Amino acid sequence: RELGVEVIGWVEKVHTIRASVDPLRVSLDEVESNPVRCPDLKAAEEMIAKIEAIRKEGNSVGGIVGCVARGVPAGWGEPVFDKLEADLAKAVMSLPACKGFDVGSGFSGTDLTGAEHNDPFYATDEKQVYTPTNYSGGIQGGISNGEPILIRAAFKPTATIMREQHTVTVDHENTTLSGRGRHDPCVLPRAVPMVEAMVA
After folding, report:
1. Could you give the dihedral angle defined by the CA atoms of residues 125, 128, 134 and 138, in that order, rounded to the nearest 10 degrees?
2. Beta carbons within 10 angstroms of residue 49's beta carbon
3. I need a labelling partner for 47 at 20 to 30 A (CA). Which of 13, 36, 82, 149 fits?
4. What is the pLDDT of residues 22-76, one digit of tens each?
5. Cα–Cα distance between 126 and 45 in angstroms, integer?
6. What is the dihedral of CA 106, 112, 115, 116, to 10 degrees?
7. Which of 94, 81, 199 is closest to 141 using CA atoms?
8. Where are the beta strands (DSSP E) in 15-144?
9. Integer angstrom CA distances of residue 42 from 11, 35, 45, 90
């Protein structure tokens, strides 16, 4: 806060339902406007319906949390042992059920050539340096470049034993368990503030 950095996370995808979110303009009020923490209200309604249906089945779904850090100055991180994206990845991947992490274009960047993926730098009349594409997600060579830092974290569907779960006893005998107690059909809404905390 003292440096003017703003970190906002949101639910970007639940199962196959993907939201359309502008990370440069998304606000905390938009994120917190519904229980699934998705600022795209049409997608949020579909996500809520999907989670409710999957809960009734005794099943679960996973998805993706998006997060932006705006106002990060250039120069945070180091080029080798304390790369900024490595530190962020370690923090976010430490969250329960988190199975994937990417920065900027992430895995979709593999569809581009180096010339297409290049982030050219320009200076404004006010001598501010910026890149219009930000494929790097605000981090180049392990160091923040002054652009918004964009990350995504993938969360798996939680293991569910509301029906029968095949497992093995300590004596290596096959058995089945049936679940009792709390069942979490989707961890994504609860993961948003944890991802924000890890990035902050």
Report:
1. 180
2. 12
3. 149
4. 999 999 999 999 999 999 999 999 999 999 999 988 889 999 999 999 999 999 9
5. 43
6. -80
7. 81
8. 17-18, 63-70, 98-103, 122-123, 129-130, 139-140, 143-144
9. 13, 13, 5, 33
For 8, the token pair is: 């906002």
Residues in the chain: 200
The residue to which tokens 């993961």 are assigned: 191
The model's confidence at residue 154, banded by pLDDT at 50, 70 and 90, is very high
Q: Which amino acid is at 100?
A: G
Phi, psi (degrees; rounded to nearest 5) at 187: -85, -5
**pTM to 2 decimals?**
0.89
Q: Where do runs of H (alpha helix) occur along the chain?
A: 28-31, 41-56, 84-93, 114-117, 188-199
- Residue in the structure block whose two tokens are 């440096």: 3
